[in-house]
Amino acid sequence: MKINLSDEKAREMHHILMSIIAPRPIAWVSTVSEDGIYNLAPFSAFCVMSVNPAIVGFNSAAFRDGRKKDTLINIESNGEYVINMVDESLAEAMNITSASFPPQTDEFQEADLTTVKADLVKVPMVGESPVNLECRLRQILKFGEEPMTNNFIIGDVLLIHVKDEYYSNEEINASALKLIGRLGGRGIDRYCRTTDSFKMQRPV
Ligand SMILES: Cc1cc2nc3c(=O)[nH]c(=O)nc-3n(C[C@H](O)[C@H](O)[C@H](O)COP(=O)(O)O)c2cc1C
Q1: What is the pLDDT of residue 185?
Q2: Is 74 left (phi over 0), alpha (psi -120 to 50) or beta?
Q3: From the CA of 163, how far away is ligand 1's center (Å)?
Q4: CATH 3.30.70.20 is held by the domain 5-193
Q5: pTM of the shown model
């Protein structure tokens, strides 16, 4: 079977790419609107783009009717955001924040989450997240035709917060974080746990 993406419609392309590029980490992105409303939404088209300097990126695709997502609107307006990492205990709250609430809705309140003040950006962090990355916008790469654009949001990581229980002897206890990942599939969203891991020695 060969799939030529130039023959596919946007919805099919989403299904194909998300099914085979998996598992994906989830950037749970908090932002603030011009009116001071807190916004929170998950994005799994998310990756590390550079280690030094530390740069991460995620893709905000337009809604099916062509509207921009609130996350993109807020970042375009003030350039600041926090990426909160999602562990197993936060899966349901994260899912609630993926609903397309109107911009006036505070999604921290909708998902019953605690806002914690960040140090360097004017955007709240999710208090329940094991790790929070304070970020400043560096660049937005736009792909596709208006209005159905994909906006890849690239930002510098300014400060990382790790809950004390996951950090000792200058090391992050990665397996204790219990982060979840997003998988592909049709009809219902599928996720995976990171607790079923294995070790392998790299060749020298
Ligand atoms: C696990 C998960 C991952 C998602 N990943 C993306 C993504 O990578 N890009 C995207 O545009 N939307 C993604 N979404 C959908 C957005 O979260 C959703 O459209 C949300 O309503 C956007 O909120 P906002 O308008 O407040 O920014 C994802 C949803 C879930 C549940």
Answers
A1: 86
A2: alpha
A3: 25
A4: no
A5: 0.97
